[in-house]
Specification:
By secondary structure, this protein is α+β, with helices and mostly antiparallel strands. It has nine helices and 13 strands. It folds into two domains: about 100 residues; about 160 residues, Gcn5-related N-acetyltransferase (GNAT) (Aminopeptidase), CATH 3.40.630. Helix 3 crosses helix 6. The radius of gyration is 20 Å and the shape is globular.
Length: about 300
C-alpha cells in the first residue's frame, strides 16, 4: 500500500515538500514502512522544515499502523532528532572528463591488468534497452546464488520505458553469452549503479571489472562526472570491490525506527529461507521470485 504526503505552510501556499511511503506487509516478515522499496534513496524532498515535518509524519504513520519498522532511505540528512541507521554507506568516485587520463592516473598497472584480462579473452560490453534479456539472465542467476528472490523482468522493462533518458543498462558478453550486467540511473552529473551482477562460475575471469570500466568510459563520454557504486554494508566483499576503484565512502543517513530494524534481513527465518533459495533451480526462482520479492522489506 502506498501513501503520499505533501507539506504546505500554515497559509496553505504551494507545496514545499513531498514524501511517498510504502507499507510492505508479509505473513513471514511482518509489516514495514519504506520509502522507496527496491531503491537506495527516496526520502522526503523539499525545504528543510518540510522534510522535517514529512519525516515526522512518516514515523507516526508507521507507528499508528502498527508497523514493525519505518525506514526512510535518505541521501541527505533530515533536520531534527530522528533515529538513524548507521549500517549503510555508498561509495562515490569522481570520473573526470577524459577516460584515457583516468586509465593512466587513477589505476596502477596491477589494477589495469584486471580489466585487460577479460578484454584479452574477447569480452565486450554493450549498452541499450535491447540487452534487457541478457541482463536479466545474469541478474536472475546471481540473485539465486545470493539466496535473494529476484525482481520481475517487467520491473526493469517499465523503468526503461518510463525513464529512457535516465536508465542505463549494460551487458558484458563472452562469445555472445551474457556474463555480467549492470542497471543504473543518470541524474544530473552523477550515475548510480543500482544493480549489477556477474555469473558466479566465471568470476575468476573478472567480467565485472570490464563491465564497470566500460560503464565509466561510456558515462564520461556522456558528460557524467561522478560514479556512485550504490549502497553497501561496510566490511563486505562488495564494499571492498567498490573501494578498490578508488572511491570513498559516503554515509547514508537513513532514518530508521527502531534503530535495530527487523527489516535488516538477518533474522532466523530470513537466513533459513535464503539457504533454501540458493539450492533451487534458476527457472524456479525466476518464476517464484517476483511474488516473494515484493514482500521483502530489505529489497
Amino acid at each position: 500500500m502506498a501513501r503520499y504526503a505533501g507539506a504546505r505552510d500554515a497559509e496553505g501556499r504551494p507545496l514545499r515538500g513531498v514524501l511517498p511511503i510504502f507499507h510492505v506487509k508479509s505473513r513471514f516478515f511482518g509489516h514495514h514502512v519504506i520509502s522507496i522499496p527496491f531503491m537506495n534513496y527516496g526520502g522526503p524532498v523539499g525545504d528543510a522544515p518540510a522534510r522535517q515535518a514529512l519525516a515526522a509524519w512518516a514515523l507516526q504513520d508507521g507507528k499508528t499502523a502498527g508497523a514493525d519498522s519505518v525506514v526512510l532511505r535518505t541521501r541527505t540528512a533530515v533536520p531534527g532528532d530522528f533515529p538513524q541507521a548507521s549500517s549503510k554507506v555508498t561509495v562515490v568516485l569522481p570520473l573526470g572528463g577524459d577516460a584515457d587520463v583516468m586509465w593512466q592516473k587513477s589505476f596502477d598497472a596491477k589494477f589495469r591488468n584486471k580489466i585487460k584480462r577479460p578484454q584479452r579473452d574477447g569480452m565486450v560490453t554493450r549498452f541499450g534497452p535491447e540487452h534487457l534479456d541478457g541482463y536479466y539472465e545474469v541478474f536472475a542467476a546471481n540473485m539465486r546464488d545470493l539466496g535473494t528472490p529476484v525482481l520481475p523482468r517487467r520491473f526493469f522493462q517499465r523503468i526503461l520505458e518510463q525513464f529512457p533518458g535516465m536508465a542505463l543498462l549494460g551487458v558484458t558478453y563472452w562469445n555472445e553469452r551474457p556474463v555480467a550486467g549492470g542497471f543504473g540511473f543518470i541524474w544530473r552529473d552523477e550515475f548510480e549503479m543500482t544493480w549489477s551482477s556477474s555469473l558466479k562460475e566465471l568470476r575468476a575471469s573478472k567480467p565485472n571489472m570490464l563491465l564497470y570500466w566500460d560503464y565509466m568510459r561510456e558515462l564520461i563520454g556522456r558528460g557524467v562526472r561522478q560514479f556512485n557504486f550504490g549502497r553497501s554494508t561496510p566490511g563486505t566483499g562488495p564494499h571492498d570491490f567498490k573501494l578498490s576503484w578508488g572511491g570513498v565512502d559516503e554515509a547514508l543517513p537513513w532514518i530508521q525506527w527502531p534503530t535495530q530494524s527487523a527489516a535488516a534481513g538477518t533474522g532466523g527465518v530470513a537466513q533459513l529461507a535464503s539457504a533454501v533459495w540458493r539450492h533451487l533451480p534458476v527457472r524456479m526462482t525466476r518464476a517464484m521470485g517476483p511474488m516473494v520479492a515484493r514482500q521483502l522489506p530489505w529489497w
